[in-house]
Design goal:
This protein is 31% helix and 18% strand. It has helices at residues 101-106, 117-125, 129-143, 205-211, 225-229, 242-257, 284-291, 354-357, 404-417, 419-422, 427-454, 456-493, and strands at 3-7, 17-23, 33-37, 40-41, 47-49, 55-57, 61-62, 65-70, 79-85, 90-91, 149-153, 158-163, 169-173, 179-182, 199-201, 235-237, 240-241, 342-348, 359-364, 373-376. Mean pLDDT is 90; it is low at 233-241 and 307-316. Helix 2 (117-125) packs across helix 3. It is globular and about 70 Å long. The strands form six sheets. It has a six-stranded antiparallel beta sheet. It has a four-stranded antiparallel beta sheet with strand order 3-8-9-10, covered by helices on one side.
Length: 496
């Protein structure tokens, strides 16, 4: 139920490769941590155990990384929802797609699939994005696929990955001068597996479709993976029609970053271009703004449109029009949704040393209610509060006031229920704070680089301290918001 953006290095303001993702999971029921994992050596005979029951041999060396991750009680490996490793390879969990009815009948869902734990494997084992795709391909062809899609990047290139259950998968390289957006869909269309610089896929991607009646090569149309395997019409989840659930988010992301691209928000998703040139060079701030969007200024904005068109309209206003729930409570499936458990932007820059060049602008809970802290790829620790939080099997957590995640989730929950009266106490504060971080970034990194040239270890210590200070600062700001929000709510409830 997630959303992703990938941007090539020629489409960004500073020449970095960028990936952004919102993990729209179980919200309060899915606590996440921000972790720093060191490079490790392993003994012969060690194995990696996955929840599916699959075990694979451990490699002699696993790379260090910083990540936002889910920990499940009783499991030995964390699930990386998003991270950057010591080689500036960025990997994050899936947004998930849907297969059409014909494809579902012949493409079995593989219970042995490693699923999103492939992202942890990519962070631990890959030096490049292309190598990460190969690692994922090997795990998929050995143990099977679900319906996951991913965006894997390094400072030079970014790849989109999609799969169709069974052992079928395809990957496409995002052109350097373009961006791509992905919702809960299958988007990679025409592919050329004879062009390995730009496409990769399972060897039987096309032959399987032909053998099972999904594609007729004599029909006059080129093979299109999205049309052959993907679901683009009908109701897909929770009785929400597909346009409102996924396609509109694709349309909105493109329209925000390339307004000159005239698209119809009612079109099927595969009508939209997969790769788009932005109207101007993009920054991490631009991607964060997309992640916070709820269709403001369009006919799909809950607060601007006719309330009667929404299933949940009665929950947005009381008789005195005092209260409005978050725009996430919307017939439309908005991008900046309240149940997000993390949203982040990975900024990858090859001209800087890896510990400085990779930075994960990472937030916990809803995008419009949290801070995005600059977690540098080379840091060696994160604050204690960010390392608290564990989920029961199935991804269920319970409130823990010592957990950074639960502090941000408390802010999210209060704003979500009383959005109209509380959002101005939260969103402008975080935007101002993030503006200060982006303004300070050149000076911070200039200092880090000067130290690195003389003493790389000391530069890592410097960035570790900086990231940790900002993480604690944001957490204390969030804690300070809670009494103010409760006071506002209490006064509103008493008519003051």
């Amino acid at each position: 139920m997630c959303y992703q953006i990938a941007v090539g290095k020629g489409a960004t303001a500073d020449g970095s490769v960028m990936v952004a993702r919102s993990c729209d999971g179980h919200s309060g029921a899915m606590a996440l941590r921000v972790i720093s994992v060191p490079r490790m050596t392993h003994e012969p005979g060690e194995v990696v155990k996955f929840p599916s029951g699959v075990e694979i041999p451990q490699v002699p060396v696993t790379y260090g990384y910083v990540a936002i991750a889910q920990f499940i009680k009783g499991q030995e490996i964390e699930e990386a929802e998003g991270g950057i490793n010591e080689y500036q390879v960025s990997a994050g969990s899936s947004s998930g797609g849907f297969l059409n009815e014909a494809a579902r009948k012949v493409c079995p869902r593989m219970e042995t699939s490693v699923g999103d734990y492939r992202m942890t494997m990519a962070l631990q084992r890959a030096k490049t994005a292309r190598e990460a795709v190969q690692i994922m391909a090997d795990l998929t062809e050995r143990y099977g696929a679900r319906t996951d899609n991913y965006m894997i990047a390094d400072p030079q290139e970014v790849w989109m990955w999609e799969e169709f259950q069974g052992r079928l998968w395809v990957a496409a390289r995002v052109p350097d001068d373009c961006f791509a957006v992905e919702a809960n869909t299958v988007r990679i269309g025409e592919v050329d597996l004879d062009d390995p610089e730009n496409f990769m896929g399972s060897k039987n991607l096309i032959s399987f479709a032909v053998e099972n009646g999904l594609y007729n090569p004599d029909g006059g149309e080129p093979f299109n993976a999205a049309k052959v395997y993907g679901a683009q019409t009908g109701k897909v989840r929770f009785d929400i029609p597909a346009p409102e659930y996924d396609r509109r988010r694709i349309w909105r992301g493109i329209s925000l970053m390339a307004p000159s691209t005239e698209l119809d928000p009612e079109e099927p998703g595969w009508v939209y271009p997969l790769f788009v040139k932005p109207d101007r060079k993009l920054t991490p701030r631009d991607l964060l703004n997309v992640m916070r969007d709820h269709y403001e200024g369009t006919e799909y904005d809950l607060y601007a449109a006719d309330q009667d068109r929404y299933k949940y309209s009665e929950m947005h206003l009381n008789e005195n029009r005092q209260y409005q729930f978050s725009p996430s409570w919307n017939r439309e499936r908005v991008i900046g949704i309240s149940r997000s458990v993390t949203n982040w932007v990975a900024q990858l820059r090859g001209w800087l040393p890896n510990p400085i060049g990779g930075v994960l602008w990472g937030g916990l809970a809803a995008s419009w209610a949290n801070a995005h802290v600059p977690w540098y790829a080379g840091i060696t620790r994160t604050p204690e509060a960010y390392n608290i939080g564990i989920n029961a099997p199935g991804g269920i957590s319970e409130y823990d006031g010592n957990s950074a995640y639960w502090v941000y989730e408390t802010v999210t929950s209060l704003v979500n229920l009383f959005y109209r009266n509380t959002i101005d106490e939260v969103l402008p504060v975080w935007k101002t704070w993030e503006d200060q971080l982006f303004a300070a970034q050149p000076a911070v990194e200039k200092t880090a680089l000067e130290i690195y040239r003389e003493n790389p270890a000391l530069a890592v210590d410097f960035l570790t301290s900086y990231s940790n200070i900002k993480g604690v600062e944001a957490l204390e700001m969030a804690k300070g918001m809670i009494p103010k929000l409760l006071t506002i709510i209490a006064r509103r409830n008493t008519g003051i």
